[in-house]
Design goal:
heterodimer; A: alpha/beta; Rossmann fold; 2 domains; B: mainly alpha; two-stranded antiparallel ribbon; 16 helices; 2% strand
């Protein structure tokens, strides 16, 4: 075929594709309008698929399909270019096949979501897969098809406290304005408006339902994942001095993240060599290792392989690894998981000893009530209606029980958990109440006094 | 206290490399890493069993044997490291957050794996020799002056490059399942695109440059003096036709189709003097060639006509292969380090 004929053929194909795309866009206009989206969004390649994802409350799938649509167009365009090497064509064809397979799977998921939102049987998925444009037009025009929720529906969370914690206070000062995560088309707020000062020597329980942002909060506090925040430990800004401060943080993960095929002694010695300052002599480091072995009851096991230790012993070793550098802030993520009540109690008593040495200890546990007497304070994180992690309470344990009017921490958790999680769904109410407490504390009241004031106000309001 | 924290200096990269090197060598004993050594001997033994009579004695045998040796190296290298980083990824993440330098960690792995590859090279060479594989006919090595050392360097570099490639994969993926899923694809790519064994379309020949097997195979062929060896395929095929025959008429037809014969009047007279229906047995020809030791002449001539410039026994060819393998190794180490630097971004 001559060059002119090839160009003419490409142009014809291109015009055909554009015309078909515009017709397809026209079909989607009523559907998008019904879902609360602007009509012009149905004409933008890629973005249209993302909007379909929003309509179906399947944003993730919409995002993938949008990416694949753009990829498909780019691949097709590249393959039309004259003089593309055969090898590249081969690879592009392969990519195209892979894209098609992923597209097929994601489209099924998205169409299932669409049927669910419109309360229609899933047999419609087949029609959506085969004749998407026609089905979109039909659903868009027919009054029988109405979405149970608009794509633009957004929940509003509880109001913000508008306070800040004292950054120069002794201990840990936390001022998290927001912790967001970016995705292709939007920014999600994972945490916001969390302000507190935890004094030295306090052992604090971190309480929150699944997805409330406990780990995100801890990662923001330790600087592992930076937030829009100011975190200071004893007046040192964690984010600005992370390279130095990281040695002053102890984070004990939930799993025993240690090499099983090494001895207890060598594991601790290696930890000491990395975490302790280079200025310390070998003798001092060895002494510190021995202190840790004794302090955590591991002396008799120092030549035992880590994999041979029991669950409790592994946990103690894991804590000793972090404690070897004598950090001011000590964080433990479910240290009692997999331990029986007696061993767990012993472990928490050890943590109490550490706090009594002037350290700040923050602990996440899913069985708080059996050891609640050992804690000074409790941080309660809850998901508000926008699914953002918010501070629902920070203060002494006894005040928390009065504030939530519940006798146990598990009952507190049930109160703030969302209804679909089996909770009472009262998170927003307590977030708003706690904001009030925080403002009163900012004005000079103690947490107890502020809580009493707010509780009294609440009951007056309820009586009225 | 605050000043103490801010001013405190911690152990640097070199010291940390030492710590991790010690850790890995303890793992060699405790974690049974040593088990890869007998496996290397077993694989080398199997290959030697099949290839011992043809490797470095014929062109086909040398190409096939060099390919097999490159495959041994890639197999050994891949299995050394494919799970090393990903299986302890959460541990590395924890240690990185408490002061571990990723460059120290990867350097320690590199040194430890170099030791492993060296041991595997020695074992492979030992087994090949013990199993009776004949060494190249040129006893002097082309680069170092010692053929054993030359071959050893090629085997070591090929194994180490494969090892570092699998270390790179292990640094990228999040778990061992993904690593073991990716590995067969890499292995197939290495085998198919080695460039020596499978004929590839011209448009994708450039891909062979990105395989470790190509450089390992080329260096081994060059060291085995591929271009000076006889090619046996033709003579073997001829011998298989021993029981066949052809009529004089058919022979005349073939020969007279060529101007060399048809334009020679004497040849035409000679051919026409034979009756067309006379049957000529191939066995007569082959026996005649064998009686004058002509088979070897055919093999040598066949070899001369099938020489490959890329396998020339030239120190420059071998040096280039080694350089390419070294570049592969350096790139893999660099990318593995860069990939692992993002370990803090891992989700829970």
């Amino acid at each position: 075929m001559s060059d002119t004929a090839t160009v003419a053929s490409i142009a014809t194909n291109g015009i055909e594709t554009i015309v078909l795309y515009v017709i397809s866009g026209l079909c989607y206009i009523p559907f998008f309008k019904k879902c609360g989206l602007e009509w012009w969004k149905s004409f933008i390649p890629g973005y249209r698929m993302y909007c379909r994802g929003l309509c179906a409350r399947r944003e993730q799938e919409g995002r993938i399909l949008a990416f694949l649509e753009v990829m498909t167009y780019l691949l097709a365009l590249t393959m039309l270019i004259d003089g593309v090497p055969g090898a590249l064509l081969l690879i592009l064809s392969l990519v195209q096949v892979i894209c098609l397979i992923i597209n097929f799977v994601q489209a099924i998921k998205l169409n299932i979501g669409t049927c669910d939102i419109f309360n229609r049987r899933r047999t419609w998925v087949l029609l959506w897969m085969l004749f998407a444009d026609i089905v979109a037009l039909h659903w868009g025009l027919s009054k029988k098809f109405q979405p149970s929720r608009l794509a633009t529906d957004k929940d509003e969370g509880a109001e913000e406290s508008g306070i800040t914690a004292d950054e120069e206070a002794e201990g840990l000062s936390v001022n998290i304005a927001a912790r967001t995560a970016r995705s292709a088309f939007q920014t999600v707020t994972l945490l916001k408006d969390i302000h507190m000062v935890i004094p030295k020597g306090h052992m604090v329980l971190l309480l929150g339902g699944s997805g409330a942002g406990k780990t995100t909060f801890l990662n923001a506090v330790t600087g592992y994942e930076k937030a829009d925040a100011a975190i200071t430990i004893n007046d040192i800004n964690v984010y600005n001095n992370y390279e130095q401060v990281k040695y002053n943080l102890g984070f004990v993960p939930q799993q025993e993240l240690m090499r099983g095929n090494d001895t207890v002694l060598k594991t601790l010695e290696d930890a000491a060599n990395i975490r302790l300052p280079a200025s310390m002599s070998i003798k001092e480091k060895k002494q510190r290792v021995q202190d840790m072995l004794e302090s955590f009851g591991l002396s008799m096991l120092q030549n035992t392989m880590v994999e041979k230790l029991s669950g409790g012993q592994k946990k103690r070793l894991s804590i000793a690894i972090e404690f070897i550098s004598d950090p001011d802030l000590f964080i433990l993520d479910e240290p009692d998981s997999g331990l029986d009540g007696v061993v767990a109690r012993g472990l928490f008593e050890k943590l109490r000893d550490i706090a009594d040495q002037g350290k700040i200890v923050i602990v996440i546990t899913h069985t708080p009530d059996r050891v609640i007497d050992l804690f000074d304070d409790v941080i309660v994180l809850a998901k508000d209606t926008t699914r953002t992690g918010r501070l629902a309470f920070y203060g002494p344990v006894s005040t928390a029980k009065r504030f939530f009017a519940r006798g146990t921490m598990e009952a507190v958790l049930r109160t703030i958990n969302q209804k679909e999680e089996g909770g009472e769904g009262r998170a927003d109410e307590f977030i708003a109440m706690y904001s009030h407490i925080a403002r009163l504390v900012g004005e000079g009241k103690t947490c107890e006094e502020a809580a009493d004031t707010v509780i009294v106000e609440k009951y007056k309001g309820a009586t009225a | 206290m605050n000043k103490e924290i801010k001013d405190a200096k911690h152990q640097g990269r070199v010291y940390q490399t030492g710590i991790y090197l010690g850790k890995f060598f303890r793992m060699f004993i405790y974690q049974n890493d040593w088990k890869v050594m007998p496996i290397a001997a077993l694989i080398a033994g199997l290959v030697a069993l099949v290839m011992k009579n043809s490797l470095f004695t014929t062109m086909e045998g040398t190409l096939l044997g060099s390919f097999a040796i490159a495959c041994i190296c890639v197999w050994n290298g891949f299995f050394n490291s494919i799970q090393n980083v990903c299986r302890e990824r959460p541990i590395v993440k924890r240690e990185h957050r408490s002061g571990l330098h990723i460059s120290s960690y990867i350097t320690a792995h590199t040194i430890y794996q170099a030791f492993m590859c060296l041991m595997q090279t020695i074992i492979t060479m030992f087994v090949l020799i013990k199993m009776g594989v004949s060494l190249p006919q040129e006893p002097k090595g082309l680069v170092t002056g010692n053929i054993m050392l030359d071959l050893g360097i090629t085997i070591f570099l090929t194994t180490f490059a494969a090892d570092m490639m699998s270390l790179l994969v292990s640094s990228f993926v999040r778990n061992t399942t993904t690593a073991m899923t990716v590995m067969p694809f890499l292995l197939i790519f290495q085998l198919v695109f080695s460039g020596g064994f499978f004929a590839l379309p011209d448009s994708i020949t450039f891909l062979t440059d990105y395989t470790i097997t190509k450089w390992g195979l080329t260096a081994t062929c060059a060291q085995g003096q591929y271009n000076d060896l006889p090619m046996t395929a033709l003579w073997k095929s001829m011998k298989k036709m021993r029981n066949g025959s052809i009529t004089a008429g058919q022979l005349k037809e073939f020969m007279l189709a060529s101007p060399d014969f048809s334009e020679d009047p004497e040849m035409v007279i000679l051919l026409n003097s034979i009756p067309d229906d006379k049957e000529i047995m191939f066995d007569d020809f082959i026996t005649a060639i064998e009686s004058q030791n002509g088979g070897y002449t055919i093999e040598k001539k066949s070899g001369e006509l099938n020489q490959e410039e890329k396998y020339a026994s030239d120190p420059a060819v071998i040096s280039k292969c080694w350089q390419m393998l070294a570049i592969h190794i350096l790139i893999y180490i660099g990318v593995a380090t860069a990939a692992l630097e993002f370990i803090d971004k891992d989700k829970r």
